[in-house]
């Protein structure tokens, strides 16, 4: 194989694929990216960790000899990063080595044969639909912070996608770690009828979000079966992310969404966030609990720490129900408030032991549930 490619093109492509590659690998080939050059003048680059695979095509300046080879992903990425701007990078293979030339720089990198490189077999992906990249990015942002990191409850280690017929057909994304729940709802896209319920793993969600950042004005093609999902960004010759899905059953989360919470607090999310952040300064790692005292049009935030003393702050808010006190984990509360872009957020409360429903308003696509803490 012999090809020449512009440094910026190579760097952009490698930055997309190399983050899939784990730093420590027991299987040497998984540290490598597969590079294929064909006569038509394009290069295909692929990386995988056996559960997740990213493929991207890029235009080469020239392809003299077609061929394919695998080479260390992080090494090639670091070299491309340090080469001067505007450099033409020549990639040539021979004798189990790949020679990388740019200007006066020469690198000879060890390679492994292309035939050893594992490729995820997608099989049949019967469900196929498109979503605007902006919508998909918002759906990911509004839910992924609630994904569980507990490996024992592996079925919570991702975002749950499913279609339901509420008042009208919708597609819902949900994530929960048992302490909080985030759900995002949008109109069911054409082609998503009969879609199986799927759980997209945390790592695939993170890689997808990075890729979306560069194509927010386009649409994303989504193809899936009960075991695999494929996201195609940038149309033909764009970036393709294929991932295995989590093989498990997501719990029926709708049971924890409260429907009869009759105490309503409306407050400015930014000043609420800042108030919680300030009083939580003295909360210890173990407790992280903030007590919220509600009285007519007033919220009193307070933290008591045996080691660090006490803190309190008053905020204005719209509240006209009975006085009450409730405690929350400060970080969880801040994570949710961070998702609210408007001037007002609604907290629907019942009592100190019941889950609280948080949302912008009854029209907003995102909805959050937060479990209280004893304080």
Task: Explain what this protein looks like in three dimensions.
With 375 residues, the protein is of the alpha+beta class. It has three domains: 2-116, DNA Polymerase III, Chain A, domain 2, CATH 3.10.150.10; 127-255, DNA Polymerase III, subunit A, domain 2 (DNA Polymerase III, Chain A, domain 2); 257-370, Roll (DNA Polymerase III, Chain A, domain 2), CATH 3.10.150.10. 17% of the residues lie in helices and 42% in strands. The strands form three sheets. A 13-stranded antiparallel sheet has the order 5-1-7-8-9-6-2-3-4-17-16-15-10. It has a nine-stranded antiparallel sheet with strand order 14-11-12-13-26-25-24-18-22. Strand 20 (298-305) and strand 21 form a beta hairpin. Helix 1 runs antiparallel to helix 2 (73-82) and helix 5 packs antiparallel against helix 6.
How many helices does DSSP assign?
Answer: 6
Number of domains: 3
Shape descriptor: elongated
Under the CATH scheme, which class of the largest domain?
Answer: Alpha Beta
Give the N-to-C terminal Cα separation.
66 Å
Q: Which stretches are low in confidence, meaning pLDDT under 50 for 5 or more residues running?
A: none
DSSP strand content: 35-45%
The CATH homologous superfamily of the largest domain is termed: DNA Polymerase III, subunit A, domain 2
Q: Percentage of helical residues?
A: 10-25%
Structural class computed from helices and strand pairing: alpha+beta
What name does CATH use for the topology of the largest domain?
DNA Polymerase III, Chain A, domain 2
Strand order in space, largest sheet:
5-1-7-8-9-6-2-3-4-17-16-15-10
Q: Any guess at the CATH architecture of the largest domain?
A: Roll
User: Which sheet architecture does the biggest sheet show?
Assistant: 13 strands, antiparallel
Total strands: 26
Mean pLDDT comes to 95
Radius of gyration: 25 Å
């Amino acid at each position: 194989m012999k090809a020449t490619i512009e440094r910026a093109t190579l760097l952009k492509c490698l930055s997309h694929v190399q983050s899939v590659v784990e730093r420590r690998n027991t299987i040497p080939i998984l540290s490598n990216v597969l590079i294929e050059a064909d006569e038509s003048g394009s290069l295909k680059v692929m990386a995988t960790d056996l559960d997740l695979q990213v493929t991207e095509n890029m235009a080469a300046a020239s392809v003299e000899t077609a061929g394919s080879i695998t080479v260390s992903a992080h090494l090639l990425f670091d070299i491309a990063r340090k080469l001067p701007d505007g450099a033409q990078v020549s990639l040539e293979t021979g004798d189990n080595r790949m020679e990388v030339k740019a200007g006066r720089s020469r690198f000879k990198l060890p390679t492994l044969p292309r035939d050893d490189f594992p490729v995820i077999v997608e099989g049949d992906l019967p469900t196929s639909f498109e979503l605007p990249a902006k919508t998909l990015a918002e759906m990911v942002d509004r839910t992924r912070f609630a994904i569980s990191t507990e490996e024992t409850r592996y079925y919570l280690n991702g975002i749950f996608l499913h279609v339901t017929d509420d008042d009208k057909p919708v597609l819902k994304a949900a994530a929960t770690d048992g302490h909080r729940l985030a759900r995002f709802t949008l109109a069911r896209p054409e082609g998503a009828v009969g879609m199986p319920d799927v759980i997209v793993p945390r790592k695939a969600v993170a890689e997808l979000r990075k890729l979306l950042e560069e194509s927010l004005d386009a649409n994303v093609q989504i193809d899936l079966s009960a075991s695999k999902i494929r996201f195609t960004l940038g149309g033909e010759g764009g970036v393709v992310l294929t991932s295995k899905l989590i093989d498990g059953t997501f719990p029926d989360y709708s049971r924890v969404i409260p429907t009869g919470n009759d105490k309503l607090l409306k407050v400015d999310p930014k000043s609420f966030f800042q108030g919680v952040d300030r009083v939580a300064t003295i909360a210890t790692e173990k407790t992280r609990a903030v007590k919220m005292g509600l009285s007519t049009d007033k919220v009193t935030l307070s933290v008591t720490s045996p080691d660090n003393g006490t803190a309190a702050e008053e905020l204005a808010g719209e509240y006209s129900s009975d006085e009450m006190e409730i405690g929350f984990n400060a970080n969880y509360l801040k994570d949710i408030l961070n998702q609210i872009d408007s001037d007002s957020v609604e907290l629907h409360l019942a009592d100190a032991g019941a889950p609280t429903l948080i949302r912008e308003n009854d029209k907003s696509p995102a909805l959050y549930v937060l479990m209280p803490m004893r304080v």
